[in-house]
């Protein structure tokens, strides 16, 4: 029975208690947390034991911990997907399962975020079981804000204000190149919509010298999208690439 509870993920573990004497309680301190409706926060003193199931062709999606906090998570037999540190906080995203879908694409399950302060576990951010595939990895954006990514698409941001964690909507603009360039959030847009929005921020397409475009790229080029190299038929779209000059 214990093995079964481990496999269903932290959402159930946190709702029924781990049996170790830790005090677990859902946090609703931030109004923005209630509005988001995806994430819950539990106060914990220790991370539950995991039993990560990662197929060999998803090993590329597992991060090798570079922080002490990430090592703690891995030692509990969870698969670490990313680590980010802001001030005295370290955020570690981790999962219990991955399923290979296609080349370089794996779907996660039992996904969570461990929040450490000064090396000590303070919170676990988790979802309902039906949404436990949503937390893929983390990234730091402007102002030390933690961006939560799902299949490389941002779904929420986590900010720290006076030791209070709160969820915020995804920023509509992000700076790059030491703040000299502003890039709009184009996730969720069609290719034609995304490039048009990039144009309004001063970007111009670079024509690709390739007479043999892959997959659906040829169709896009007939629509004037000259910068496309390939178009994946999987529905998984990568972000455009930028270089600072």
Describe this structure in words.
The structure is a single chain. With 245 residues, the protein is α+β, with helices and mostly antiparallel strands. It folds into two domains: 2-171, no CATH class; 176-231, no CATH class. Helix content is 18%, strand content 33%. It has six helices and 15 strands. It has helices at 2-7, 10-16, 31-36, 68-75, 191-200, 217-222, and strands at 40-43, 79-86, 89-95, 97-102, 105-109, 112-117, 120-126, 137-141, 145-150, 153-161, 164-168, 173-176, 181-184, 214-215, 230-231. The strands form five sheets. Strands 1-7-6-3-2 form a five-stranded antiparallel beta sheet, with helices on one face. A four-stranded antiparallel beta sheet has the order 8-9-10-11.
Give the overall average pLDDT. Answer: 79
Distance between the termini: 58 Å
User: By helix and strand content, what is the structural category?
Assistant: alpha+beta
Radius of gyration, rounded?
A: 20 Å
Strand sequence of the main sheet, in spatial order? 1-7-6-3-2
Please summarize what this structure is:
The protein is an alpha+beta fold and 245 residues long.
Q: Which features does this protein show?
A:
globular, 2 domains, four-stranded antiparallel beta sheet, 245 residues, alpha+beta, five-stranded antiparallel beta sheet
Topology:
Blueprint: H1 2-7, H2 10-16, H3 31-36, E1 40-43, H4 68-75, E2 79-86, E3 89-95, E4 97-102, E5 105-109, E6 112-117, E7 120-126, E8 137-141, E9 145-150, E10 153-161, E11 164-168, E12 173-176, E13 181-184, H5 191-200, E14 214-215, H6 217-222, E15 230-231
């Amino acid at each position: 029975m214990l093995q079964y509870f481990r496999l269903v993920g932290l959402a159930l573990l946190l709702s029924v208690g781990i049996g170790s004497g830790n005090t677990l309680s859902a946090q609703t301190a931030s109004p923005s947390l209630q509005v988001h409706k995806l994430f819950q926060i539990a106060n914990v003193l220790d991370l539950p034991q995991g039993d990560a199931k990662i197929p060999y062709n998803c090993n590329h999606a597992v991060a090798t911990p570079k922080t002490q906090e990430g090592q703690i998570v891995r030692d509990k037999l969870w698969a670490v997907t990313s680590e980010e540190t802001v001030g005295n906080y370290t955020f570690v995203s981790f999962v219990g399962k991955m399923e290979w879908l296609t080349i370089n694409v794996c779907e996660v399950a039992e996904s969570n975020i461990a929040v450490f302060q000064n090396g000590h576990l303070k919170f676990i951010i988790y979802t309902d079981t039906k949404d436990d595939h949503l937390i893929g990895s983390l990234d730091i954006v402007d102002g030390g804000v933690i961006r939560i990514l799902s299949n490389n698409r941002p779904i929420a941001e986590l900010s720290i204000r006076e030791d209070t964690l709160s969820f915020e909507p995804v920023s509509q603009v992000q700076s790059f190149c030491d703040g000299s360039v502003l890039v709009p959030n184009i996730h969720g847009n069609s290719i034609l919509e995304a490039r048009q929005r990039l144009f309004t921020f001063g970007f111009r397409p670079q024509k690709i010298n390739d007479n043999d475009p892959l997959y659906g790229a040829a169709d896009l080029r007939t629509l004037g999208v000259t910068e496309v190299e390939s178009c994946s038929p999987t529905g998984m779209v990568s972000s455009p690439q930028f270089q600072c000059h």
